[in-house]
Amino acid sequence: MARLPCTCTNLHLAIAFLCLLNLINYLLLADAAIVEHTFHVGNLSVQRLGQSQVITAVNGQFPGPKIEARDGDTVVVHVVNLSPYNLSIHWHGILQRLSSWADGPNMVSQCPIRPAGGTYTYRFNVTGQEGTLWWHAHVSFLRATVYGALIIRPAAPRGRYPFPRPHGEATIILGEWWNTSVVDVERQALLTGAGPNNSVALTINGLIGAGGGGCGAAAAAAAENNNAAAAAAHQYQLTVEPGRTYLLRIINAALNYQLFFKVANHSFTVVAADACYTDPYHTDVIVIAPGQTVDALMRADAHPGRRYYMAAQVYQSLANATYSATTTALLTYLQDASDSHSRQEQEQQALMPTMPAFNDSATAQSFYASLTGLLQDGAPTVPLHVDTRMLVTFGLGVTPCAPAQTLCNRTRGSVAASMNNVSFQFPTAMSLLEAHMRGAPDGVYTRDFPDRPPVMFDFTSDSTTANRSLMFTSKGTKVKTLRYNETVEVVLQNTAILGAENHPVHLHGFNFFSLAQGTGNFNAHRHVRAYNLVNPQQRNTVAVPTGGWAVIRFTADNPGVWIMHCHLDAHLPFGLAMAFEVDDGPTPDAVLPPPPPDYPRC
Ligand SMILES: *[C@@H]1O[C@H](CO)[C@@H](O)[C@H](O)[C@H]1NC(C)=O
Ligand SMILES: *[C@@H]1O[C@H](CO)[C@@H](O)[C@H](O)[C@H]1NC(C)=O
Ligand SMILES: *[C@@H]1O[C@H](CO)[C@@H](O)[C@H](O)[C@H]1NC(C)=O
Ligand SMILES: *[C@@H]1O[C@H](CO)[C@@H](O)[C@H](O)[C@H]1NC(C)=O
Ligand SMILES: *[C@@H]1O[C@H](CO)[C@@H](O)[C@H](O)[C@H]1NC(C)=O
Ligand SMILES: *[C@@H]1O[C@H](CO)[C@@H](O)[C@H](O)[C@H]1NC(C)=O
Ligand SMILES: *[C@@H]1O[C@H](CO)[C@@H](O)[C@H](O)[C@H]1NC(C)=O
Ligand SMILES: *[C@@H]1O[C@H](CO)[C@@H](O)[C@H](O)[C@H]1NC(C)=O
Ligand SMILES: *[C@@H]1O[C@H](CO)[C@@H](O)[C@H](O)[C@H]1NC(C)=O
Ligand SMILES: *[C@@H]1O[C@H](CO)[C@@H](O)[C@H](O)[C@H]1NC(C)=O
Ligand SMILES: *[C@@H]1O[C@H](CO)[C@@H](O)[C@H](O)[C@H]1NC(C)=O
Ligand SMILES: *[C@@H]1O[C@H](CO)[C@@H](O)[C@H](O)[C@H]1NC(C)=O
After folding, report:
1. Ligand 3 centre and the CA of 152: distance in Å?
2. Is 303's C-beta closer than 6 angstroms to any atom of ligand 5?
3. Could you state, in chain order, the average pLDDT of each consecutive group of 10 residues for the chain (602 residues)?
4. How many helices (H) and strands (E) would you count in the chain?
5. How far does the chain reach from its first CA to its final CA, in angstroms?
6. Residue 306 CB less than 6 A away from ligand 5
7. Nearest ligand (C-alpha, residue 484)
8. Which domains does the chain have, with CATH numbers?
9. Which residue, 239, 247, 289, 203, is CA-closest to 546?
10. pTM of model > 0.70
11. Which of 221, 273, 378, 450 has the most C-beta neighbours closer than 10 Å?
């Protein structure tokens, strides 16, 4: 009698063990999937603002296709360029570990995919990242219409969100609309050496909605008349069930403007930014800079009989500027069709949220400064030892008009933008990464990007504005070379030379820890004490306060060449960029492999 249970137990143990082995196998092997897409990029005719217009778009869709992957998957995208323009695509926020070749910025990681049939296959792994990212063109102004969401869910089958599972989710991509070719807008800006024309409207999921200085008149009129079908063609609409919680995946794909986002009579709990989990942060306003994403839970807890606008409005950070715009989408509650009372209620005018003042920098700064990172087992923690410290000043300035700038005012000069007084010049013969790989940077780039600004001055004082001795920038294609695994701290310091403005600075190839931010000039003695070294947020794009600074830290554990630039497209072609060159490490898993066979060359 005594032995039987024992045998039984052994058998059960053996079965349990086999099950466990299978489970481990399943967890480790069975789940990494290959997510494959083909992007045909070409002309698409769309109706907006009462006119038909040709835009560049992917697979005839605007916004472009959503890429959905899980942590651990491999993403493969075959891009076929049928458009009339040079093209490259960036997978914004993807770390691209050991796959710098697939990063995408034109002339930095690759030469463009040539028009009329050029192809390139981007191949990369998504590992250790979860949340909302996006993809966009990284050449000229094409990203105005060539963009889409890139969503990474926790690994199957066991991964889960570090917050209660939402009932549903919605992707909300905010953008800007020009009623003319964006390539022409950029070309004109470069020829005149002046800023590009403003967009004529904002968009939510590619639709213009109501608002926007009268530009959204069609949607507004349709909404007023309760012509649901007509309104839906102009305005994005989200329907929710009362009492449920939804995950909003908000992406700012606008070219040049930061945005405030609100939903009337609803509030949010922010749970992630730039696909890095945050501590839950409760707010009724989301502030989001071009390049950034926010994952926010929204409980559908308002009166279900009414309709509510969600609204995006420009946050204008440029000192004394007056331009602003607003657009809307509609939030409605699922109604019982037989409930005629609530149908009548729903026919009332939708409620509009009260938006912050368009120049409310205090609200913007408070949002950005309130986010902290969620501490999780196994997630990266902030490096406490720093090998290299840099102070990088940046903003706008001027250069003498170049001969090619045929429409440039020679008395005034051309707008230029710079970091540490170097206005970044994109190479023309070969990409930075290809030159790096060949070990032959001569004639393509130099390794003398300075660790500090060449001249110290009162960076953010109004008295520096239009000071001619500070205004002129030098030009160059300079990189900062980093040893593999070096830890780097960068103080990003805005200047006020042509007016103070909040610049969203985006680093490719890494998430960085955002330790502190503030207004005025960074002061090591006073501000180091304010560093959050416990649970700082991680991001790939930091909105550096207007007339202020932000401090970031990262570990250079990803070999390749990585651009760091302002994500306002009005500033990038004028040179608000620099690049890090990260050397290979000592072990095979720290060496950048050679480029793929179809790598585009110039
Ligand atoms: C695409 O549109 C551009 C601009 O309207 C036009 O010049 C070009 O011919 C079009 N290309 C094709 C293949 O339709
Ligand atoms: C991506 O993951 C696959 C499978 O684990 C691996 O074979 C491949 O080398 C990885 N690619 C890169 C660029 O790391
Ligand atoms: C574009 O929009 C602006 C502002 O609404 C308007 O003045 C202009 O005429 C429009 N241009 C075209 C080509 O429709
Ligand atoms: C930019 O705006 C100016 C002034 O409204 C207009 O004359 C010009 O044609 C616009 N440029 C482009 C490329 O649309
Ligand atoms: C919406 O919010 C406003 C302002 O807080 C409030 O006055 C109004 O009663 C709310 N409406 C509904 C339907 O909840
Ligand atoms: C915001 O703009 C308004 C109206 O243009 C102006 O009166 C106010 O001073 C501005 N506020 C800030 C903080 O610049
Ligand atoms: C050129 O710039 C100067 C200095 O800013 C200005 O006074 C002049 O009016 C401009 N000329 C033209 C034609 O816009
Ligand atoms: C311009 O800046 C330089 C360098 O800081 C300074 O020496 C000079 O006094 C400033 N000029 C004016 C007019 O403020
Ligand atoms: C930047 O460099 C230019 C050219 O060397 C010089 O004239 C200017 O004073 C410098 N500006 C700053 C802010 O360092
Ligand atoms: C990189 O740094 C990490 C953390 O400091 C360390 O564990 C690792 O061994 C380093 N790798 C190399 C190749 O130096
Ligand atoms: C903004 O306006 C104020 C008050 O008119 C002025 O003192 C300041 O110089 C202006 N700033 C810029 C960057 O134009
Ligand atoms: C397109 O790219 C090629 C190769 O880099 C370059 O020679 C050409 O000038 C580019 N065309 C435009 C319009 O930028």
Report:
1. 38
2. yes
3. 34 43 46 93 96 97 98 97 98 98 98 97 96 97 98 91 97 97 96 95 93 44 53 86 98 98 98 98 98 98 96 94 94 80 71 97 97 93 97 96 94 96 97 95 96 96 87 97 98 95 97 97 95 98 97 98 97 97 96 97 92
4. 9, 32
5. 81
6. yes
7. 10
8. 29-153 (2.60.40.420), 168-370 (2.60.40.420), 388-590 (2.60.40.420)
9. 289
10. yes
11. 273
